[in-house]
Amino acid sequence: MAAPAAPPEFSAATPAHGDAAGMPHSGCGSAAIWKASSTGALGHVFGFLQLSERVQAAAVCRAFRQAVCDAFRSLSSLDTVSFGSRETAESVCAWVKRAVFPWPQLTRLRVNLAVDAGAAYSEFILALPPDQLRAVSLHGLCRRSEVVEALAERCEGLESLQFCLRGHQGHSVRFASLLTRCSALTQLDATDCPFANDGLLRALAAAVAAACPSLERLELRGSPGVGADAMRALAASECSASLTSLQVPATHIGDAGVAAMAAACPGLRQLDLSSVRGLGDEGLAALAAAECVPRLSLLGLGGMGAGVTAGGLASLVSRAIGLRTLKLPSNRFCVTDDVIRAAASSCTGLASLNLRGCGSVSDAGLLALATARHATLTSLELEFCIGISDAGVEALAEHCTALEAVSLRALVLAPISLAPVRALVERNTRLRSLIIGQAGDMATLQAFAASLVAARPDLAVGW
């Protein structure tokens, strides 16, 4: 059913977070579907927002702006503002200019730069005390630089900065300038940011070297402009000693970048190198020799290129003895039974294993995994593992007892039977999510799923 149209007295925006119906996670609804209300009624409703930890400022009633502002004045516990519309930003900023800033707990700000209200955003940011903001998220098409320049004046206490932006390469200079002033930064996320490049990362390295902050998390997922030079600069900076999480999927750092960061970051606990261009066995060997590898708790090596072999992966996994999460999806050839055996025998605390699309894994590898890690394994992803048959599922059912989530979808070369799946469910009493497929026609699957859920109401079954 189509959503009701917003009455003319309301200005609505797409929610920055929440469900499709416009409900923020805190449970406070959007004003976009309200009918005409009295000033008192609107103020009363907005008054309830002070009970929420997170408040979305995504819709403002033009007719009752003053009521909204009066209600905002009472939100002493407000800790997050998310601007999703130009009218919201301009209304709130106009009020901020007329009153003492009332939100001492406001520490998080999310701004959609696709909405052309840069001046209003900047006024709002500049109204904040210099060290109040702790986390900022910028997303959308970056047309103007006022917001970045305003943040540079109010970033003394900034600990987390996320920007998922589209714009021309000149923006990298502005963000580099901002980074040099974020002396308290512990988390930087430039996911899917096309102008995150070696120059931007060199600026970050210079900033942390000068201010000696403790950068702990760095995410550059899907930033193709990031290469080996950026990793060398970071490795040479003081942040390398404090870095605990590095996420660089789909970058171009290659063997040289991986080797540089691995050698310089002894404190790494999470590392994702999925789909890194130019990464081969040489880079994996350098990583395997690094001090951080035995203490890694998460390792992502999905979508490896032709330069990675099963031997290279097995050697690395054998040294990563502290792993709890291992992600190896989309490796049709290099993830073999030997790699699975290495993980099963060496990673004694392994809890989550993603083998989606690993077509070279067979029942023998799954048996080795189930036998060795039956007490620790809680999550197993086997979608499109076309070498798995009933025997592999039977091995899981016979040995594993701690599974909470399992996916068996699209084992297309050897469709699984329902009997071993039922045995798997019966043996794993903590199982909460089961994905099945290719085990019969749809009517059979639906009846089977219904019988499982009838016996285990807490189990979600899909196909």
Note down, in words, how this protein is organized:
This is F-box domain-containing protein. This protein is an alpha/beta fold. It folds into 3 domains: 1-158, Leucine-rich repeat, LRR (right-handed beta-alpha superhelix); 176-296, Ribonuclease Inhibitor (Leucine-rich repeat, LRR (right-handed beta-alpha superhelix)); 299-463, Ribonuclease Inhibitor (Leucine-rich repeat, LRR (right-handed beta-alpha superhelix), Alpha-Beta Horseshoe). It has 16 helices and 17 strands. The protein has helices at residues 39-47, 65-73, 86-98, 118-126, 146-153, 171-179, 198-211, 228-236, 254-264, 281-288, 310-319, 337-346, 363-372, 390-399, 418-427, 442-455; strands at 10-12, 59-61, 80-83, 108-112, 135-141, 160-166, 187-189, 217-219, 245-247, 270-272, 298-300, 325-327, 352-354, 379-381, 405-407, 433-435, 460-462. The strands form 2 sheets. It has a 15-stranded parallel beta sheet. The longest helix has 14 residues, at 198-211. The protein is globular.
Provide the descriptors you would attach to this structure in a database record.
single chain; 463 residues; alpha/beta; Leucine-rich repeat, LRR (right-handed beta-alpha superhelix); 3 domains; 15-stranded parallel sheet; two-stranded antiparallel sheet; 17 strands; 35% helix; 13% strand; globular; F-box domain-containing protein; LRR_dom_sf; Leu-rich_rpt; Leu-rich_rpt_Cys-con_subtyp
